[in-house]
Amino acid sequence: MDPFDVIGNLHNIKPVFQPVIGAIDHDVIGYEVLGRIQDEDRWKSLGPFFQDEDVPEEFKEEVDQHLLKLAMDEMLEMEKDGMLFINRNASQLLVNDGEALLETLLLYDQKGFHLNRVVIEVTEHDFDEDFETLGHLLLYYKTYGIQVAVDHVGAKSSNIDRIRQLEPHILKIDSGIIRKHNGDEFQDVMFSLSMLAHRIGAALLFENIEDDFQLYFAWKNGSRYYQGYYLAYPSFDLVEKESLAVDLSEKVKRYVHRQRTLIEERLLFVRQWEEKVKGLLVKWEGPKKADTFIAEVTDLFDEESFRMFVCNGEGQQVSANFRKRDSEWQMEPHKKGSNWAFRPYFLENVMRMKAWNTGLLSDLYSDIETKEMVRTFSFPLTDTHFLFIDLRYAYLYNHECLLQ
Ligand code: CA
Description:
Distance between the termini: 47 Å
CATH topology of the largest domain: TIM Barrel
Bound molecules: calcium ion
Order of helices and strands: HEEEHHEHHEHEHEHEHEHHEEEHEEEEH
Radius of gyration: 28 Å
Largest sheet: 8 strands, mixed, barrel
Mean pLDDT: 93
Strand content: 15-25%
Strand order of the largest sheet: 1-2-4-5-6-7-8-9
Structural class: alpha/beta
Number of helices: 13
CATH superfamily of the largest domain: EAL domain
Number of strands: 16
């Protein structure tokens, strides 16, 4: 695309709006502005123009400013509330120290398009350039109430520090990186991103959602906003809820049902395990005979477990390890005396079991010894001694509800 054809034909350029949908009320909460140029009787994306590194930043800024004004004019004219997401790369923002953009936004603020409705999207990629200057500029924009979103988060995980520094309002995550079948790795990335978002108070926005699975994933992972072809294509019109491609409320109703069913199933498992252990409690004769007791438990958890042991409330293991190898349960007496109180949540969980007199199921975690993903079911034998039953990954894997 010849940049002069673009810059010389601003009258042939129009903004398109892609709806951003909110998870709370299932309604359109704003639009991301993208550009289109008319080429004879076809409208073409301005993406290649903006992504071309040979196009001078001043050109891009001029075209973007033009699009922005058209977009805000249209939203004002149609009396549309809601947010306006605009894309800017770092070098573009830094043209004239970012003053041109701010002037335009202040002008429209007076016309009634308030600054806090504007979300500037920068990409993580931009952080590689002059982050110091860019960071300062964005913080300066934020003092005006302008919102900041970081686009394509997770594409490069090395920028977590910088995202933290910037404290953006929104993290945009490309749904394309969700792998339907190799979920583990992505789950870990997702976990870190959720944690980061939570820490800095940023909302997650999953974009490029193209199918039901990605929408479900976004919903399940706490995304506050959704965007993508599955919901709505970019359009010259300011599309409303009624015109979205899917009925989000209907979808969410199904997701809620599905998720509730899985949680119910999981709780049922925990209940059954509790009952099994309770049935054996009469055989508990104190820590000195802990091994004799566990020898009775192994049979009942032969399918589920590969390892079990008993600890006291200080985290000290008072039994041997019972370890299943080649379908045989073997004792590892040397593990007796190990202290597990340093493990995350250990004391918290022990005290919960004691206070509520109930079994607990841990989250999924990577086992130190086997490096496999496992979960631990634990149960208070008494006020002072607790049984830990480590569940095999292969068993968990066969029950979807145990992988959640
Ligand atoms: Ca974007």
